[in-house]
Amino acid sequence: MNRRWLTVIALLIALPLFAAPLVSPIPDQEPHLSVTSEDSGTEPIQYLETSVQYQNLSNPAQRILDKSFQDSTTVSVPLDEVPEPWASLAPDKRRGEATYLQAVRNGRYYEVRIERFLPQPPLPAVVLRLGPLAVAIALGDLAGYFFLTAED
Questions:
Q1: How many CA atoms lie within 13 A of 71 on its CB side?
Q2: Is the pLDDT of residue 96 over 70?
Q3: CA-CA distance, 41 to 6, in Å (whole number)?
Q4: For the packed helices 123-149 and 3-23, what is the interaxial angle rounded to 10 degrees?
Q5: How many beta carbons lie within 10 A of that of residue 69, not counting itself?
Q6: Separation CA 77–CA 56 (nearest Å)
Q7: Gap between the Cα atoms of 67 and 127, Å rounded
Q8: Which of 47, 58, 81, 146 counts the most CB atoms within 10 A of its CB?
Q9: 37 with 103: CB under 8 angstroms?
Q10: How many Å apart are CA 101 and CA 68, to the nearest integer?
Q11: Which pLDDT score is estimated for 45?
Q12: 22 Cβ partners below 8 Å, 6+ apart?
């Protein structure tokens, strides 16, 4: 096959592969709520004014706290799935701003940090855009090679 035809074929494949990731947006991430808790012992935390009783919370709110109580892990929940009172306690928009409160459960006090954040785009969404771009660039290089080495 003639190298000029190979150049045309490589470019016809490379152009859509190059254009598709550029025009397809990465899906918007919904705001999430981050809940982190730390066991503070049996004494109330003096510098925290807001206090909630674990047994007075709704079942979804108790599940979020239970997850965060395990090994003091951070729980991330989409904002539209967040039960009250967490959604109303979280600061509105500023990054790094958090609300602190104490939760009382079985005579133990837990310092709970609540923060809103926008999560990073998921890795598969990014890879699905970078992969075709890399292939398109390689095909463009190959097309340039075929064009420059073609004989008249």
A1: 2
A2: no
A3: 72
A4: 160
A5: 19
A6: 20
A7: 30
A8: 146
A9: yes
A10: 14
A11: 80
A12: 133
Q: Is 138 helix (H, G, I), strand (E, B) or coil?
A: helix
Q: Residue 85: is the preceding peptide bond cis (ω within 30°)? A: yes
Of 112, 98, 116, 115, whose CA–CA distance to 52 is shortest? 112
Per-residue confidence (pLDDT) for residue 141, from 0 to 100: 92
Alpha helices in 1-152 (DSSP H): 3-23, 59-69, 86-89, 123-149
Summarised one tens digit per residue, pLDDT across range 102-149 is: 888 888 888 888 888 777 777 887 788 888 889 999 999 988 888 888
Q: Please report, as a single letter, which amino acid is at residue 63.
A: R
At 39, which helix (H) or strand (E)? Answer: strand 32-41
Tens digit of each residue's pLDDT (9 = 90 or more) over 28-45: 677 777 788 888 888 888
CA–CA distance, 116 with 91 (Å, rounded to integer): 7
